[in-house]
Structure of UDP-2,3-diacylglucosamine pyrophosphatase:
Amino acid sequence: MADKLGLLAGKGDLPKRIVQKCVSEGRPFHIIAFKGQTEPELVAGHPHTWVRLGAAGKTLSILKEENVKSLLMAGPIKRPSLVAIRPDAWGLKFLAKTGAAAFGDDGLLTRIIHALEGEGFKVIGAHDVLEDLLAPKGILGKTKPDEQAEKDIQKAFQIAHAMGELDIGQACVVQDGLVLAVEAIEGTDKMLERCLDVKRDGFGGVLVKAKKPNQEKRADLPTIGVATLINAHKAGLRGVAVEANGSIIVDQDKVISKADELGLFLMGIE
Amino acid sequence: MADKLGLLAGKGDLPKRIVQKCVSEGRPFHIIAFKGQTEPELVAGHPHTWVRLGAAGKTLSILKEENVKSLLMAGPIKRPSLVAIRPDAWGLKFLAKTGAAAFGDDGLLTRIIHALEGEGFKVIGAHDVLEDLLAPKGILGKTKPDEQAEKDIQKAFQIAHAMGELDIGQACVVQDGLVLAVEAIEGTDKMLERCLDVKRDGFGGVLVKAKKPNQEKRADLPTIGVATLINAHKAGLRGVAVEANGSIIVDQDKVISKADELGLFLMGIE
């Protein structure tokens, strides 16, 4: 049987799928729920402890007491200001060592992972627990992008990578060569909302999500789900492309069905 | 007396200031108003012709009939899809020659300017007509940025430049090292609106606007006005920095007064 899993839980569907998987396989687990971040429904009826995000030392003690061996971070965590974090002693030491204030989300996560490994934990990714989570390469549904969409995908992919290099975000929307929206920390759904106001007539745009070039694969890979397809459709887009083997599709079968139902293309690109 | 000016008018305050200046100096002018783009109040009582954005050939004929020598583009023009433009014969020739579909806003504007020069017009910038329009270097109001704000300005400036190199946009907001928002084509005011939802506790962020590295100075320089300061304040920001000699402050005195009134810093950086 797999060793006991510690789940550092952010928002969204991914932590739910991890919990379901552990339950169905009988794998022991303990959820670390962060106040103001983790959704309370996630932990109901499951072993869990609520902690402040800044209570890093306490969190590590709990994980050790619970005899957790492997750690998994899943779901986005909203990074508060350093003032609001109120780091405990371990947290202060970590921040002093890394100068984390200067880093974007990605640099910070990589450093957190290394610090957790330094405490003796094995840090794994959501795709190590859930099979079929990483996006495969190729066209995944029935709809195919036309020539214009292909061009927009190429441009959007290039821009998403440039954004990633600057540690800004992971997604953008391009229509007919024009960049309609670029994601910072508002999240993909919010970004899609504003596309409806700025989109041009003619063929709709495309959403592309790509991992940051230096992104730690065990934390916060770009993720899409059924809701992403619904919101992309509402925003007047024609399809969604994500980085193959570098992004997560939660409930892949359902997402492909939804894409087919809405007439959107869905693909993994490299 | 200055020669007759043709004003290709987009939205906002800048075209109004140009018209006021021409009227006050008795400089002859003719406004080209674009359907669905130019604000009707701008042209009321002034010599003007309404044209479709795609009616490039007709626009040039009007300007020549009106004996216009110098041309000035002022105020943002919303780029429609190529389908919606319905270019006339001149427009089609221009598009065929430049392959404009593949360009972002900036590349397109540069090519439009060169084409207008090829038709014998002198193309000038708004700052050639209005003095004190370009942002000067230094702190412009009473409030000074602190060390944290200085760091955020540096980071935001670097990001705005990178966005500009990719021809995405000209503005971004950074708080405590975190990129809160990046502007694509939604415009600065819309970008500021969403900062309120994503901002962190603690010291507020900064807005930086910079011209694109290859930007044609005679078209669409990053622009701020009194409304920008008001919206930055509403968004919880602590100040605004714009590229010195590469961005426009409309009604500079009023903008500085507003910054002082709201306690925001306002500065030109290089």
